[in-house]
Amino acid sequence: MAYTTRELSVRTLPDFESLAVKQGQCWCMFYQRPKPIGRELSSEERRKVNRKDKALLVRQGRSHAVLVYEGKTAVGWCQYGTQDELPRIDAKLGYRKVGPLPGSTKLWRITCFFVDRHHRGRGLAKIALNAALESIKKRGGGIVEAYPVVSSKMSAVPEWRWFGTPSMFRNEGFEEVAPLGASGVLMRKTIGP
What we know:
Elements: E1 3-7, H1 13-23, H2 43-59, E2 64-70, E3 73-82, H3 93-98, E4 107-115, H4 124-138, E5 142-146, H5 166-170, E6 175-180, E7 184-191
């Protein structure tokens, strides 16, 4: 069966929620907050807060993602958004060392991927990435950043693949800009409107 894509919206939010339940407590909220939510919360409380906050951001049009479907079931996603929608990146020391972008070009960020474990290894992340890039183009384009992990330990920690791989981004025309700490790299691509 061929995969299809749809944008995260109020209409597709229930599909996202079904997939996010499989992913865990993050709900792709980590980069949408400038600072982490309280450590005094239990895992279950964090999960509830993240779910509620994600739904609110979707209703406000401030949370972007592409969902990948097999039939009517969401089996993967790629989160992206503007700099103000994903502010947590700016707090990272390695990122701040790179310095600000020149000019007033709009900055987009691709922060994470998730593919249901039964659909991994079938190119869904690439499908989601291409759909996200097309969505960014339709929204006027700009500079698109990605933050894949390059550590040799990556295979031992499957969660690191949530950020994509350098080769996946390189194949779509991204170029390496700077290292981000010991395990990451900043990659960028410019997309015209």
